[in-house]
Specification:
Blueprint lengths: L1 H8 L2 H26 L4 H6 L3 H22 L4 H24 L6 H6 L3 H21 L2
Helix pairs in contact: 2-4, 2-5, 4-5, 4-7, 5-7
Length: about 140
């Protein structure tokens, strides 16, 4: 199979389409992991108009895609898959740690109750850590 895929990836358009396809698939998988870890249903809350859930989810999407940006600089789609998975796993661990290191209140409960201040902080943490994680992938 690699014999038929690798020549396509040597062309810039083929590589772009390959990275884009893998990134979309990984984004869906990784967002599903975040959804399973949260104590609220992100998309149901967003559908109800929960701004805090929308902010937190937007931060996760931006954070994951920012890590993808750094991982794409490796030049190989196979390296991209490895490093984007490692980077997103680190972002996921930081999401779990965020809940653990804030004993004053429950992050997921506050987001489910549309506490926008917590949603903004969750967005900021996801985005900020994605830059640190992405830069450390090099």
């Amino acid at each position: 199979m690699l014999e038929s895929v690798d020549p396509l990836l040597e062309h810039p358009i083929g590589m772009t389409l390959g990275l884009f396809s893998v990134a979309i698939l990984e984004l869906i998988v990784f967002l599903s992991c975040f959804e399973l870890a949260a104590r609220y249903r992100c998309w149901e809350e967003i559908k109800r108009g929960n701004m805090a859930a929308a902010l937190a989810t937007a931060g996760k999407i931006f954070g994951i895609c920012n890590i993808f940006r750094y991982a794409a600089s490796y030049g190989s789609i196979y390296d991209f898959m490895i490093w984007s998975s490692i980077g997103t796993a680190l972002l996921f661990v930081s999401y779990l740690l965020f809940e653990f290191v804030t004993p004053v209140f429950r992050i997921d409960r506050e987001i489910a109750e549309d506490n926008r201040a917590v949603g903004i902080i969750a967005l900021g943490i996801s985005v900020s850590l994605s830059f640190v994680i992405g830069a450390s992938l090099k």
